[in-house]
């Protein structure tokens, strides 16, 4: 089977825009969760979120004009702008901007989003309702469609290989990377740009997740304390937005052109809960089977894993179920690994989360350090004997890392990344 | 330059992101100013909005240059 490696990284997160800026702030224990300032939250139960800080790109700020022309910004939803920013970073980081026909035909794009152009759809509905269908922009549909992120990236760079998209709620980013890796393994492409983007922090997005009782509401006055995976004081997740993108490449292809190889995608496992639209089954068997399948594909034993980037959203039910599934799968080996939830620092980026977290795993392997779980002051039942990396990053050798993503609808994905020997 | 012409050109500059100097009377939206078919639909909508008029689809199809737009709007108002 052809081997697939990671050769480019791109991030837009509530901590920063840019891979190194985000990573340094994450390791320093900073939080990107803030009170929402850009729209009215007075009647919303949750008034906080992780939003990419606006500002100059050089300082780690997000400036849409640096990624998409002002003319084209009107034609795309914000999730596409985030996704294009992450994709551009990843492509430039990989140094992969070919011009020859064959390379362009052998490079594809597979990016997704959990919800896509939610704000655009919301505004379009208001326009049709208040001013009639003639006032709806001709760009309404292509601005909102989820696969248009992959489309826009392909058009910008001329990548004419497989063009695909994933929509699996909070597992989107992980599924995109796993599926893209398989396209390379199956020789459908040599290079894939893969990842996820989300921009659902708006009145309708917050109202929707509030209605399903998923969000934290007790920490509106102390936003940075709100996302607290495995802590007894947790009360729901914190909405986040942004994007993560990677360049995946067939190993020999990367080696021949002298690309920097960050890590190898060695395992990918998928499963379904077949249980409930928003809640995992009590025994966590969906996550358990996804992790098991990823390890099997990688040909690894649980003891080979050094770090788990957990799904760990800070919801009362989900965190403990994931923890017990990990305990069941890893047995006594659980004492040898570190497991943290970086959602404690950036919130839940929904369809972007899996891609962002796979990048954190890649950087953990590169730098031999694992990022912390913030706000873990009073660990929940079942946390004994598991190093959940409270408060501070830890220096430790990470040869192999596992990243979990679980989504509404009972859709689960696990990725295993490994250092390349 | 008439008031209508000035406003039309301003809209074209904003929507197509082109240099003001290129927006001459004879400039064609698609061939000279880089618009695609969806851009021209949006442009016509912007003219309707700005001038409070309705431009029927069969007329809109014939508006291919900056001057076409100015003439139609002047006649309509």
TrEMBL record, chain A:
Reaction(s) catalysed (UniProt annotation): a fatty acyl-[ACP] + malonyl-[ACP] + H(+) = a 3-oxoacyl-[ACP] + holo-[ACP] + CO2; (9Z)-hexadecenoyl-[ACP] + malonyl-[ACP] + H(+) = 3-oxo-(11Z)-octadecenoyl-[ACP] + holo-[ACP] + CO2
Transmembrane segments: none
EC nos: 2.3.1.179
Enzyme class of the recorded protein, top EC level: transferase
UniProtKB keywords: Acyltransferase, Fatty acid biosynthesis, Fatty acid metabolism, Lipid biosynthesis, Lipid metabolism, Transferase
Function: Involved in the type II fatty acid elongation cycle. Catalyzes the elongation of a wide range of acyl-ACP by the addition of two carbons from malonyl-ACP to an acyl acceptor. Can efficiently catalyze the conversion of palmitoleoyl-ACP (cis-hexadec-9-enoyl-ACP) to cis-vaccenoyl-ACP (cis-octadec-11-enoyl-ACP), an essential step in the thermal regulation of fatty acid composition.
Stored NCBIfam families: fabF, PRK06333.1, PRK07314.1
Protein name in the entry: 3-oxoacyl-[acyl-carrier-protein] synthase 2
From TrEMBL, chain B:
UniProt keyword Lipoprotein, yes or no: no
Modified residues (O-(pantetheine 4'-phosphoryl)serine): 37
Modified how: 4'-phosphopantetheine is transferred from CoA to a specific serine of apo-ACP by acpS.
Key words, A-Z: Cytoplasm, Fatty acid biosynthesis, Fatty acid metabolism, Lipid biosynthesis, Lipid metabolism, Phosphopantetheine, Phosphoprotein
Highest taxon in the source lineage: Bacteria
InterPro entries named in the record: ACP (IPR003231), ACP-like_sf (IPR036736), PKS_PP-bd (IPR020806), PP-bd_ACP (IPR009081), Ppantetheine_attach_site (IPR006162)
Gene Ontology process terms (BP): Kdo2-lipid A biosynthetic process; lipid A biosynthetic process
The protein's annotated pathway: Lipid metabolism; fatty acid biosynthesis; Glycolipid biosynthesis; KDO(2)-lipid A biosynthesis
Localization annotation: Cytoplasm
UniProt GO cellular component terms: cytosol; membrane
SMART domains given in the database record: PKS_PP
PROSITE patterns the record matches: CARRIER, PHOSPHOPANTETHEINE
Molecular functions (GO terms): acyl binding; acyl carrier activity; phosphopantetheine binding
Family: Belongs to the acyl carrier protein (ACP) family.
HAMAP family tied to this protein: Acyl_carrier
Name this polypeptide is given: Acyl carrier protein
Organism of derivation: Tistlia consotensis USBA 355
């Amino acid at each position: 089977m052809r081997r697939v490696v990671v050769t480019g990284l791109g991030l837009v997160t509530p901590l920063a825009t840019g891979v190194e800026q985000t990573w340094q702030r994450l390791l320093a224990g900073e939080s990107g969760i803030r009170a929402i300032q850009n729209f009215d939250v007075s009647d919303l139960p949750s008034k906080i979120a992780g939003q990419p800080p606006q500002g100059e790109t050089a300082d780690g700020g997000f400036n849409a004009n640096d990624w998409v022309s002002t003319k084209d910004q009107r034609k795309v939803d914000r999730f596409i702008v985030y996704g294009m920013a992450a994709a551009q970073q990843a492509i430039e980081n990989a140094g992969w901007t070919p011009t020859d026909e064959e390379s362009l035909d052998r490079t594809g794009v597979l990016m997704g989003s959990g919800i896509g152009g939610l704000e655009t759809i919301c505004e379009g509905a208001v326009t049709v309702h208040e001013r009639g269908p003639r006032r709806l922009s001709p760009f309404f549909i292509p601005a909102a469609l989820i696969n248009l992120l992959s489309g826009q990236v392909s058009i910008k760079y001329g990548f004419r290989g497989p063009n695909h998209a994933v929509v699996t709620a909070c597992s989107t980013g992980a599924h995109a990377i796993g599926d893209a890796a398989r396209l390379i393994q199956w020789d459908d492409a040599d290079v894939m740009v893969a990842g996820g983007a989300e921009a659902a922090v708006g009145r309708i997005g917050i109202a929707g997740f509030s209605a399903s009782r998923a969000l934290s509401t007790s920490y509106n006055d102390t936003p940075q304390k709100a996302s607290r995976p495995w802590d007894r004081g947790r009360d729901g997740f914190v909405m986040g937005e942004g994007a993560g993108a990677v360049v995946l490449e067939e190993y020999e292809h990367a080696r021949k052109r002298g690309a920097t190889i960050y890590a190898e995608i060695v395992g990918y496992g998928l499963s379904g809960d077949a249980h409930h639209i928003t809640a995992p089954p009590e025994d966590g068997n969906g996550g358990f089977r996804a992790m098991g399948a990823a390890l099997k594909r990688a040909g690894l034993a649980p003891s080979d894993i050094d770090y788990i980037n957990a799904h760990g959203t800070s919801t009362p039910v989900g965190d403990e179920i994931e923890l017990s599934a990990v305990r069941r799968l890893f047995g006594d080996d659980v004492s040898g690994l570190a497991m943290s939830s970086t959602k404690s620092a950036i919130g839940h980026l929904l369809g972007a989360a899996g891609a962002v977290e796979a990048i954190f795993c890649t950087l953990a392997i590169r730098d031999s350090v694992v990022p912390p779980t913030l706000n873990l002051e009073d660990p929940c039942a079942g946390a004994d004997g598991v190093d959940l990396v409270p408060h501070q990053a830890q220096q430790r050798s990470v040869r192999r890392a596992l990243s979990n993503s679980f989504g509404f609808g009972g859709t689960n994905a696990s990725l295993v990344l490994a250092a390349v020997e | 330059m008439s008031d209508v012409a000035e406003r039309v050109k301003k809209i074209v500059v904003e929507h197509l992101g082109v240099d003001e100097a290129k927006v001459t009377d004879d400039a064609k939206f698609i061939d000279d100013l880089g618009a695609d078919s969806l851009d021209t639909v949006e442009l016509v909508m912007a003219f309707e909005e700005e001038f409070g008029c309705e431009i029927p689809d069969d007329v809109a199809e014939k508006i291919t240059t900056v001057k076409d737009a100015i003439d139609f709007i002047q006649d309509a108002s």
